[in-house]
Every structure is written in C-alpha cells, then in structure tokens.
Protein: Beta-glucanase
Amino acid sequence: MMRRVLLFIISITVLGLTGCHLNNENLVIKSFHHPNGVYFCQEKVSSEINILNPMKNEKEVWVEFEIKDNSDNQIDSSIQKETISSEKETHVALDWTIPVDFKSGSYKTEIIVWDKSPENSDAKEIAQSVDQKGFLIFKSQDDFNELDGNVWLVSEGNLGRSELKSENVTLNNGLLSIEMPQNTLNGGEIYSKELKDYGAFETRMKLPDAPSSITGFFLYKAPDYFYEIDIEVYNQSDGNLMLTTYSDGEKKNVYSGNLDFDPTKDFHDYRIEYQKDHVAFYIDNIFIQSWSDGFPKEGMYLMINCWYPKWLDGEKPKENQYLLVDWIRF
Structure:
C-alpha cells in the first residue's frame, strides 16, 4: 500500500546563542526546539524558541523562519512579530505547513531574530540559529504491503550472466523479496512505471549472501551509458560498494570502497540524492560521495535488482538467497 510521507529530521546547532544575551537587548534565548519524525504533505510542523526577558518592560522582536535546500537556496520563509513579556520566559512557536508539491531531498532551516521587521532597511539581526545537519523530505513511501502495478513493473530478460525472472519477485510479510535460486545464476528486478525527476531516493534492504553477484539500487534510462546513477553492493560479507554515474555514452564518475558492516546480516539504508547541480550518496544517513558534474540531467526509472555480472566468477549459490526490501522512499 502506498502512503504519502515526509521524513523531517532536524538537528540544530545554535551558534553560541543559547542562554546568551541578544546583543544589547537584554533578552536571553533559553532554548531552541525543532521538529523531527515523519510528516505528511500539508501537515503542520512546529519549531519553538524560549526567550527570557528579565526587564520590567515588554520587548518586541520579529522572528524569521527559513527553509533552504542543500545548495543554500531559500525555498520558503515566514516572519512573525512577537511580544516578549516582562520578567518572564516567553514561548514562541514557529509553524510551517509542508506544501503538497514539495520536492524530496535534503533541506535545512535557519531562524533569525530581528529588533524590528526585516522589511525595514535599518532592522538589526540580534540572534541567529543555523541548522547544520539538515532534514529529509520524501513525497512517498512504499512499504510493499502489495506490489502496486501502477507504481512498479517487474523485469523479464537477461542481464549479465543472469536471467531475470518475474517468479523470483514476491512479497513476504510486508517485505519485497527478490530470490536468487540455488544452483542457478538467476535473479530479479523491479522498476518504476514512471520516469523519476530530481529528488531523493532511498531504500532499506538486507542483501543476499551470494558471492559473485551484486544488488543495485539505481536510476536508469536506455540506452546504456547515457542515463544512469548507481548504488551497487556486492552480495557478500565484505560489503564492497560501487557508486557510478554514466552520461553522454560513457562512465563519468566512479567511487569504490568497503562498507563498515556486513550488508547480508541486517537491514541498512541506501540513498541517492539527485539534484540539478549535484548527485550525492548516503549509507545509513552518512555521507559517502558527491559529484557536481558527469551525471545525466533527464528523468530516469528507479530500479532495484539482484544479478550476476559477467565480470565476476558466476558462483552459483548452494541455497536459495534473498534480497529483502523493507521500503523504498522517493
């Protein structure tokens, strides 16, 4: 069953402000709080600031709340006037409704406190809180309670040493399962029915233990070598990782390394962030690599597969092995 979700995970770094006076205003920011968790489009999420006014007179401030993408472009903002009561701490709520068409990807927040409306040329910035770690937004998440034919298609055909068979793609207790049958080199693959534009794409999966095969989570459109952005992991305990982009008929960028865990033992998160000015890769929300050129600039299909490439030995598994996918977000 498809459900629309937004992942909103925020970690705020306050640049020397919490518990400090705001310039000469004699106000003290006691704390910043920011939302985390999962939100749906058009839901309201809230941040807050607690400001102490030790003086006998009320003070007025203007609070600006900005949403920026990870290229530091401002996406949305709001400004609200607040009266800070005398000789007490005032709670200031900052509410933001997530637009229905918000693009998936990484974002960050910035909160600025002004002595007057920032629309005035003489307004002074008296405090600032910058979000350093950022948060993620996804429009949709598929939990694979069913294989929705309006969203996913199953491949049939040959790839490398493998025959991709639809019978190897099944659902099991809310997991997508791609079987690599014993004593064969067969595998399986699904791909999105529609082309995917810029955004973030993430899956949580546990790999099969089938040496000389690989699992791919990637964006692709024919012909080969023109439109492709790959995460590929060897299906074995040492966690060999390959990140690749193809454009203009050739391989443009390559990264290879080893994961610091056995990908066949447990579920882990793998993410591609595909934006106009860069492509970036994350494993378990940890940044691995990014490139600012050498990647395609057109929509591609989102795909996930298990198969045996010709450039590996082609060792047949002695027992059935399975790629298990908990969810895919995009």
Q: What stands out?
A: The two ends are 15 Å apart (CA to CA). The chain is about 0% helix and 55% strand.
